Amino acid sequence: MQNENVKEKFNWPIFILMGLATFIAMVVQNAPSGVLPLMTEGLNVNAAKIGDFVGIYALVSAISAIPLTTLTVTMNKKHVLLMILGGYLISNLGIAFASTYSIAFIFRLLGGVSAGLIWSMICPYGLRFAPTNKQGLAITVIIGGSTVGVAIGSPIFNVIGNQMGWRAEFIALAILTVVTILLVIFFLPSAAGEKRSKSTSPIQIIKNRGIQKVILLTVLSVMANYGLFTYMAVLVQDIKFSAGIELASLIFGIGSFIAVLIAGKFLDNHLKGTVSFMMGIGVVSAILFLVFGGTNGISHINFALWGIGFGSLVTIFQNAITRQVKEGQSVAVSLQSAAFNFAIMAGSSVSGIVLTRGSIRSVTILALVLLAIATILSITDKNTLTKEKL
Q1: Between 313-322 and 209-229, two packed helices, what is the crossing angle to 10 degrees?
Q2: What is the 3 state secondary structure string of 87-108?
Q3: d(CA 385, CA 227)
Q4: What pLDDT, in 10s, does the model give residues 238-291?
Q5: Burial of 214 by CB count in 10 Å (0-12 exposed, 13-18 middle, 19+ buried)?
Q6: In the chain, what is the greatest distance between 2 CA atoms, to the nearest angstrom?
Q7: Could you tell me the pTM of the whole model?
Q8: Which DSSP symbol is given to 84?
Q9: 240's torsion region: left (phi>0), alpha (psi -120 to 50) or beta?
Q10: Residues 339 and 220: beta-carbon distance below 8 Å
Q11: C-alpha to C-alpha distance for 196 and 208, rounded to whole angstroms
Q12: What domains lie within the chain, and their CATH numbers?
């Protein structure tokens, strides 16, 4: 039974614990990338096969998000989260002890299914316990776990994998997942599922013009950012950034943290301004890359600016999507989540084609155009991004 008293104040432990769940989700998603050479040797396959651990994972996440969310919409949210974490646990242990690539791949697909569901349910679950005037902050803290996962979690677990073996990395993730499951069991309050009705069906929700607008902004900004982010190493080489990819990634990560702080401060009362600012920062960053390249000082600041425009994409659009409907928030978020994952794949694929036929400058120009369109749409919006929380 939901504890209504929780909503009287902002209960940081609840949202931090949910943030730990998104932290795990992001580290699991990125885990194979950091130990790719070790996994290719250990499972006796080529690099492309391990690359599928990332690409197919994202595809499964995108495909499963909507049907799984629809299927579980009436279930207790705490129970759904425990199922998801259980899926991650089985997936990580299965990969860690797999004797062949095929077995490891099957367990990896289970992780992708878990990912498809967690992003669509975790924020609507958290909003049950957030004060009305702090819902943006709640989403920021919850999704902020994924940002910490990218900037800190993945590097730490990659060190474990490279120092102790790739199987040790997945075992360590399994141990962290067990700890999180226990914390969820004892400390997260329950929340009843939503009633299944015509108004909460995906077909009905996608007809909502506000939902359509948020999904469009999601696709434009994610394709732009992830299309360029996928080839950051190529960008660093092309602009002759003297500090190299390591420092570029660090500065980018710092910018992402700043983005989370900005979102936490302004999302609740200034959603439109925050979205427009993040899109606009991306435009400025792309222009600076094209005009100044790797000029010392400017390029350092620019990687931070790009991180600011990039770091809160999930946060701002999940906040925006939840404002568009009163019923069926989980289903609405699943639509946005599926669009987000498809946009990652589309951005990476299209940018790869552009890079092959042109250059990284062409990829940067493509990102600039997409972000410019998103900026104009967000600035001129008169309803979707100004809608009060329902």
Answers
A1: 170
A2: HHHHHHHHHHCCCCHHHHHHHH
A3: 25
A4: 998 987 887 888 898 889 889 988 988 898 889 999 999 999 999 999 999 999
A5: buried
A6: 59
A7: 0.82
A8: H
A9: left
A10: no
A11: 17
A12: 4-187 (1.20.1250.20), 198-381 (1.20.1250.20)
- What φ, ψ does residue 42 adopt, rounded to 5°? -70, -35
pLDDT in tens, 284-329: 999 999 999 888 899 999 999 999 999 888 889 988 998 898 888 8
| Residue entry with tokens 């800190």 | 152
Burial of 282 (0-12, 13-18, 19+ CB in 10 A): buried
Q: What's the token pair of residue 176?
A: 């962290």
Quick count: other Cβ atoms within 10 Å of Cβ 102? 10
pLDDT band, very low/low/confident/very high, at 1 (cuts 50, 70, 90)? very low
**Token reading at 355:** 């890079």
From the list 269, 354, 263, the residue with the least C-alpha distance to 316 is 263
Distance CA 294, CA 236 (A): 8
Buried b (16+ CB within 10 A) or exposed e, 16-43: ebbbbbbbbbbbbbbbbebbbebbbebb
Q: For residue 170, report the phi and psi dihedrals to the nearest 5 degrees.
A: -70, -30
Give residue-wise pLDDT tens across range 76-135. 999 999 999 999 999 999 999 999 999 999 999 999 999 999 988 999 999 999 998 888
Alpha carbons 362 and 52: distance in angstroms, whole number: 26
For residue 365, with 0-12 CB atoms within 10 Å meaning exposed, 13-18 middle and 19 or more buried, which class applies?
Answer: middle
